[in-house]
């Protein structure tokens, strides 16, 4: 069985062909970074237009790279939410048209399920496992119990860390996307020069907050600018190091708690990390150490599959087909919000 996956919920227009043994036959990602760089963040209207322009091209390219035609495809799996609604609508409409024109079954999947199920495609990780999803738009702990069974253990109550990295970079005049820029600058910085808070660590549970960190960083920057009239390279490096350290501390401590809560119910199994922020080396190392201490195996999908891509959407569709659940039809609708909770049924479904 080979499934076509289509993703357009944020700033990547992507299509991929995946076989049910987890083999990725092709994965084409057109990232729109250049279009949004000037604004320091994703502009929804620009994103939606760019998706609409590119969806057919990335799909054609995915087919060509796999040496296939639509005839060999068992299903079209498309992100039906959550995400920037204009982009999600573009993808859903495109997939519906393709399905209508060819008669190939349509599956609308939850974007977060795509991220959360990726370790099964890449590493064959068995249920149940713990997932930390940490990206530009999301930050949450999920117990992944089955292909359509997710339990949220906690998450951010305000900004996602990737967004905070991006805003930090913007605040310090670094490039976009901010994560890699901040990480690079932090390499030569002293994380202790600016003591930043560790929000919510004093409270029990797995919820996190990152907007206070950003405010503290802005204050530190403003003080420097007022005193010196600007920022030196060293100031920037120290601020980045302080921010990265605080973010990693919060995420790692909350991950310890999530592992304890998960292990109390299911025993220690595997913790998987996905999302663009999982690319951060300092964070990765800290999480790896914490996992080892807690007796969990650690896995992080390859970076290309950590950030938004079509392969994970194809895979979520494969999991859905395998579980024997019904496919969708042309009434499938795009959902800007779609929590991945156990109670939010149907989880991988159309969300009607
Ligand atoms: P979504 O949240 O819907 O999954 P997204 O596009 O916001 O989509 P991703 O594509 O998974 O998220 O990841 C992008 C985010 O990851 C950006 O905010 C970026 O700054 C951050 N990021 C990328 N590399 C790093 C890094 N090395 N360190 C920290 N953050 C990083
Ligand atoms: Mg992205
Ligand atoms: Fe994503």
From TrEMBL:
UniProt keyword Metal-binding, yes or no: yes
Cofactor binding remark: Binds 1 Fe(2+) ion per subunit.
Superkingdom to which the source organism belongs: Bacteria
Keywords: Acyltransferase, Cytoplasm, Iron, Metal-binding, Transferase, tRNA processing
Membrane-traversing stretches: none
Entry's EC annotation: 2.3.1.234
Function: Required for the formation of a threonylcarbamoyl group on adenosine at position 37 (t(6)A37) in tRNAs that read codons beginning with adenine. Is involved in the transfer of the threonylcarbamoyl moiety of threonylcarbamoyl-AMP (TC-AMP) to the N6 group of A37, together with TsaE and TsaB. TsaD likely plays a direct catalytic role in this reaction.
Protein's name in the database: tRNA N6-adenosine threonylcarbamoyltransferase
């Amino acid at each position: 069985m080979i499934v076509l996956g289509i993703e357009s919920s944020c700033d990547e227009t992507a299509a991929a062909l995946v076989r049910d043994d987890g083999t990725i036959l092709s994965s084409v990602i057109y990232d729109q970074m250049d279009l949004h760089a000037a604004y320091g963040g994703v502009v929804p209207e620009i994103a939606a237009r760019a998706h609409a322009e590119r969806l057919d091209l990335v799909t054609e390219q995915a087919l060509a790279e796999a040496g296939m035609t639509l005839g060999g495809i068992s299903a079209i799996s498309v992100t039906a939410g959550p995400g920037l609604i204009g982009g999600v609508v573009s993808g859903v409409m495109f997939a519906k048209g393709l399905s209508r024109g060819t008669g190939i079954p349509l599956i609308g999947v939850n974007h977060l399920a795509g991220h959360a199920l990726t370790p099964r495609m890449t590493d064959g990780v068995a249920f149940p496992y713990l997932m930390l999803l940490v990206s530009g738009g999301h930050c949450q702990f999920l117990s992944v119990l089955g292909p359509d069974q997710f339990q949220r253990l906690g998450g951010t109550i305000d900004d996602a860390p990737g967004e905070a990295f991006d805003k930090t970079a913007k605040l310090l005049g670094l490039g976009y996307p901010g994560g890699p820029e901040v990480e690079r600058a932090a390499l030569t910085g002293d994380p202790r020069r600016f003591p930043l808070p560790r929000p919510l660590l004093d409270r029990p549970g797995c919820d996190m907050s990152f907007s206070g960190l950003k405010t503290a960083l802005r204050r530190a920057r403003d003080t420097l600018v007022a005193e010196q009239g600007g920022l030196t390279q060293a100031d920037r490096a120290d601020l980045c190091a302080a921010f990265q350290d605080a973010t990693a501390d919060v995420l790692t401590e909350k991950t310890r708690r999530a592992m304890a809560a998960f292990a109390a119910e299911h025993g220690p199994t595997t913790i998987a990390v996905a999302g663009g922020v999982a690319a951060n080396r300092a964070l990765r190392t800290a999480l790896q150490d914490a996992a080892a201490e807690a007796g969990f195996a650690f896995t992080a999908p390859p970076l290309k599959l950590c950030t938004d891509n079509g392969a994970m959407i194809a895979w979520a569709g494969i999991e859905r087909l395998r579980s024997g659940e019904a496919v969708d039809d042309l009434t499938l609708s795009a959902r800007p919000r779609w929590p991945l909770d156990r109670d939010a049924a149907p989880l991988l479904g159309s969300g009607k």
